[in-house]
Amino acid sequence: MENAKSAYLQALPLFMIMLIFLVIPTIMIVIVSFWDYNAFSVIPDFIWDNYDFLLTSSVTWQAYAKTLFYAVTSWALTLLIGFTAAHYMAFHLRTTKSQTICFLLATVPFLTSNIIRMISWIPLLGRNGLVNQTLQAVGLTDHPLEFLLYSDFSVVLAFVHLYTLFMVVPIFNSMMRIDRKLVEAAIDAGATPWQVITQVIIPLSKSGITIGTIFVFTLVMGDFITVRLMSGGLSASVGLLIYNEISLLQYPAAAAGAVTLLATVLIMLAILFRFANIRKDL
């Protein structure tokens, strides 16, 4: 009994933090999403108009389709790059010092803000940017490539640049816990390098891949500034719709959009958790 009481007291600070900074704000957003509003004020009420307009608008569905496209494309690329980088650091770098140096080099871009890192792409990808000038100089194209900037390509590129490290770290942690004897046994049994990766390393790295997937999906789904800057305002995302509604002081409509986005992300997380028992693997 005394141990149980002590455990509750130890968990109390975390419970209070979660209650104040997560649970109560979420409940308030859900409540406001049912309120009415006009051009001048927000009116406490209980109406379904915000959700009715949100779910029947073609703009909403187009924004969700575009956001899912960004999320899936960014996830596939970050998984490919992140898995390759993690595999190299875990199985080809033999010393802790070299692994630490690689991690520090990977985190150097994070010493600056996301906005500065995104803006840094503009001089490179612009119509008269370094990439277009180089391609024309070597004769690969005779005119500037317009799709490099202010397009879906530039948005996905920025997402991959921003969030690849969130995929590398959990996969690397999972790989470091793989018993090297299993890999050696597979090689001794005649497995090819591809079979070792697909039949030994990937299944044993499942928890890291799942955690990295959760990070990338949730960050991309809720992002709006990357889409706004890198698409030049030509593309829309769910986060950008919510931001625009907040700018127009349409708080109930924005709250309805936030609740719908939260429900969508939770459904996606529930699906992801079915592929790996993260709690057991950790």
Q: Nutshell version of this structure?
A:
This protein is mainly α and 282 residues long.
Describe this structure in words.
With 282 residues, the chain is an all-alpha fold. Helices cover 74% and strands 1% of the residues. The protein has helices spanning 2-32, 49-56, 58-91, 96-107, 114-119, 122-125, 130-137, 152-176, 180-188, 193-204, 206-222, 225-230, 238-247, 251-273, 278-281, and strands at 36-37, 42-43. A two-stranded antiparallel sheet has the order 1-2. Helix 3 (58-91) packs antiparallel against helix 11 (206-222) and helix 11 (206-222) runs antiparallel to helix 14 (251-273). The radius of gyration is 23 Å and the shape is globular. The model has no long low-confidence stretch (mean pLDDT 88). This is ABC transporter permease subunit. Keywords: Cell membrane, Membrane, Transmembrane, Transmembrane helix, Transport. It comes from Pseudodesulfovibrio cashew. It is found in: Cell membrane.
